[in-house]
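**User:**
If convenient, please work through this fold.
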Amino acid sequence: MIFNKSFKNEDYELYFNSLTGMELLRGINGKPDPFSLELPSLIDIGVMGTCKHKCYFCYQGHINKPNMKLEDYKKIIDQVKHHTNQVALGGRGDPNHHENFKEIVEYSRMNGVIPNYTTSGIGLTDEHVEISKMCGAVAVSDYDQEYTYNAIDKFIKGGVKTNIHLIFNRTTFGKCTKILHGHNPWKKKKQSLVDINKLNAVIFLLFKAAGAGKDLIELIPSSYEFSVFADLIFQPKSKFKVGIDSCLVNHVLDYTEPEKIQKMCIDTCEGARMSAYITPDMKMMPCSFANPNEWAIPITKTKDIYYIWNRSRKFTSFRKKLKLNKNSCPLGL
C-alpha cells in the first residue's frame, strides 16, 4: 500500500492514500493507538445553508441561511490541511449547487485534502459530474425517485466513484436486508435502474430523530430489525461493497461480534475524536447532529480550529462521554 500523505507527532503517525481513501493510524514511541487526534482527519463542512426541498425527515431542519463563503472555506482548509485528509461537503442542500462548487473542490485538491459529497441528484448537470471527477467519491441519497437513478447513472457513466446512501429505518428495513441478501432492489421488470456491476458501494446510514424529523420516532428501527440487520451486515451477499456509518455501528455491535479483521476496519462514534462539523456560518461542533445552541463554537482569530478542538470545554466534554462509553452517542440519538 502506497501512502502519499502522512502526519507524525510524538504519540502517533497517520498515513493516507488519496486514491483509495485508505487511512492508517497507529501509536508510536510505546504509545497505544490514539483515542483522539491532534486535529480531525475528517471534517464535515456545511457549505450549504439553503435548500428549497423540505424533506420531512431532514436532520438539518428547514431554516435557510446563507451558504458558506468561499473565503471562509479556504480559511478552514488552510488551518487543517497538514493533518486533515478528507472533507465531506454537506449542509442543508446539495453541495454541487453551491455557487463556488468548482472552486471549493479545486482548492481542497490543491492543498492535499480530498473532497467528497452527498447529493439528492436533483438538477445534476454534466458540469457537476465533470467537477466531481476531482472528488474522492460521490454518494447519491436513495430517495427512490427518477432523479435518484438518473444521477447515479450520470456519475457512473462519467467515471466518478459512486456510492448510494440509504437511510436504515423501519420503512427501508426490507430494502436494506434485500440488498444484503444479494438481490437487486433497483430492478424493475427487465430493466435495471442501477448498474450494480459498476457501483462502488452502498452505505447504510442510521436514521436519527433530529431536526425536522425529531418527532418521527416511529421510524427508529426496532430491536428485531437491528438484530436481523446485524446478522447480515458482516456477511453480505451483494455484488458491491457495503458499509455503515459509525452511528449505526454503535447499534450493530449490540447484536453481533465482528471478526478480528472486521473490528480493525470499523469504529464507533468519531465525533471530537477523529471528526468534526463546521456550519455554513463558521461554527464548529463535534457532530453535525448536535444542537447548535448547545454545541456550536464560533471560529475566530483567537479561537481557531486547533484551539476549539483541543481546549474548548464542549469538545473535551464530548470526548469524556465517549471515553466512559465508546459504544454510545453523547447526543443520545
Summary: The longest strand covers residues 42-48. The longest helix spans residues 146-157.
